[in-house]
Design a protein that fits this description.
- Residues 366-376 have a biased composition (Low complexity).
- The chain crosses the membrane at residues 92-109, 121-146, 166-186, 206-226, 271-288, 300-317, 337-361.
- Helix content is 63%, strand content 1%.
- It is mainly α.
- A hairpin with an 8-residue loop joins strand 1 (67-68) and strand 2 (77-78).
- The model is unreliable at 72-76 and 372-391 (pLDDT under 50).
Amino acid sequence: MTYRRAAIPALVGGLLLTALLWWAGASTQALRLPGSSGVFGGQGAVDLDHWLAPWSYDPPPGVQLGTEPGPGGGAGVTGARYLSLWGTAMQIRYGALLAFFVPGALFLLRRLPPVRGRTTAALLALWAWAPVAGTLAVTVSAPWLIAATGHGSYRFLPQLAGVIASGQQLLVLLGLLTAAVTVAVARITAQGAGPLPRQAVPARAARLSATAGTGVVALSLVVLSYQPVAAALQTAALGGGLLSEPGELLREWLVLGAWAAPAGAPDGDWLLYRCPDLVLLVVVWCALRRLPALLTRVTVPAMAVGAVCATVLGLLAGRLTRMPLDARIPGRGLLQLAAGLGSGVPAALTCGLLAGAAAAVTLRAATGDPRGTRTPAPAPAPDSAPDPDPVPPRPQDPPRAAG
């Protein structure tokens, strides 16, 4: 799929996702009206406001912006400069969202075009890329948002980790709609493009590659997510200043989950709550197993981006598996059950990049091909091929009559 054909759906998807998030963020004022609790319920309105607030130009009620001295040296009032700084942070967030989503979607559509046999894979990859682009956009704009509170130098890295972890639920929901529209537009622009190449990957090499990539993800999910290890990582300390207390930020970008040894709880319940982790690993392995055969060209960047999308999809599948388990807790509504959607995306980005690189290197070593793939052998030519321009035979003269 050429860049020209892939650029149109990528740009349409980026603009649609940005517009949907802006519309959702502008709706936060409606949730703060007195009548909203009667429609969504008191807790439901609070939960929805928590989902939408990271994409709103209006600061949430619980956020205290920086203050400036009042007239005559009186009590401090919210400064216009801090309000302007908050608005600047949101402008950067939306601009970064578009800047991260469009190139990623363009790359995915080039390497995984939504044509016959690849449509579902392209849809899932674009869906997973929406939370990744949103996470990067939130990370880029977070310093301006923290500075708008007036005390950005205080525990900067823990504040940064808290900002990065917000706003993911909305990205998951709107990302699915954006992916569907992007794929639909891409199928239209791909018409007449001709057959796209497929790589022939040996089954054994594909399994080894998927196992190597899944092992990297399992390192984070099993080792780093063990509570004593995660606690040691979270309490890690560096020097003083802005870079002190990096533990929460490291945990946000390295730890995919959280688990501990069974202590007092029935073993059956403990094993049941490990099922979402198992689902994550199965999804990642199956995706990495099929990824090389679906790509139009197997490269390290393509495998890395594909592994990131596979890890995010595994996280979403694990969260959806956990929702019925948490539903047994009394008082849990749908919004409370879905609060975990999108969590762990920063760690999925880190682990996915490493997993994709490991899978690509293993694939190259297993196939013995420096490109990591083997192209199918051409079909043998037939012994006798018909003449492309046959000469018609001359008609014979009719026999003459005797005498």
